Amino acid sequence: MTNSIDQLPIQSIQRTPIEQARQLLITRADSWSAITGQLWALEKKNEHWIQVRAPIPVTLGKNGLQWAQGLVTWSAPATKKEGDWKTPVGAFTLSGAYGYADAEEAAFVQLPYLPVTQQHKAVDDPNSRYYNQIVREDLVAEKDWQSAEEMKREDHLYQWGIIVDFNRKHIVPGGGSCIFMHLWRDANRYTAGCTAMAESDMAFLLRWLRPVPKPVLVQGDRTTLEKLLPELSLGNIVELLPD
Length: 243
Hints:
Helices cover 11% and strands 33% of the residues. By secondary structure, it is mainly beta.
């Protein structure tokens, strides 16, 4: 992988969160147009990464993958945008979880947990001051958005979910919003850009992920990950991912 950084459009890397991480999720698709992939859950013990569960099948965005700003800043001419239906490629922290259950029912969840109601909206209007934020509509003095996702849906997709810190710290209007890990419709149905999975696999992640190990999610296609993981000083993990 010599000179791999010249082969990827990397502008900069926030290395501290990656170095501090003791839990790692890696989503790998076979190509940039794939709507399915696999996710590996890894934990660092005695300075060695070990796989803690068999690879998890996941579904991805309708239009495949796209470079997305996170712990890696890309200099690519095209990056993820609002409404592109693409799954973000890069590295991202995971700051919390949410679900339809109340806090008592969700006591097994170790990440900071948000019990969502019909009042919770994920704002996807780039012109709103609340863009890419989950807000309680009844607590907003002046609603300024024209569109938002219902966090407590009529279906099961958001029954359990994990918040991906994409475009959240320094929010770029129109740069993409509402990226979660959530439940899938089935193993062959695409998402709007999120990473989705079966409920049993989500339940495992919610029990396993903890705030103190500062979990990080890395996503990409097979070729990108082979080049990106060494740049993140995670090169030994490539050996854990089967061909």
